[in-house]
Design brief:
single chain; mainly alpha; 60% helix
Length: 95
């Protein structure tokens, strides 16, 4: 998968150099820098496969086999709290 992503990245950079006449040299340079800096995020983050991490992260939610609606409410509350935690904070590039 990484080879495919690198191929796309270099095809984009090649296109900037050869097929792009409307950008000036400085803008092309910046676009190439950005293209090289893009992090490839395909699939899911590695921590998802770490059961210990996921269990610890989700331990605040107590699911019930008989209360579907309560499960949905708890999950939505958890997700909202998680979103509020990140509000106005810089998100790490790895997230």
């Amino acid at each position: 998968m990484e080879e495919l992503i690198e191929g796309i990245r270099w095809a984009f950079i090649d296109m900037l150099e050869k097929e792009n006449e409307w950008m000036d040299a400085g803008t092309k340079r910046k676009a190439k820098e950005k293209a090289r800096a893009v992090l490839a995020k395909v699939g899911y983050p590695e921590f998802i496969m770490n059961d210990t991490y996921v269990n610890e992260d989700l331990k605040a939610i107590k699911f019930s086999e008989s209360d579907y609606f309560g499960n949905v409410l708890q999950t939505r509350k958890y997700l909202a709290q998680s979103d509020f935690f990140w509000l106005r904070k810089a998100v790490p590039k790895t997230e």
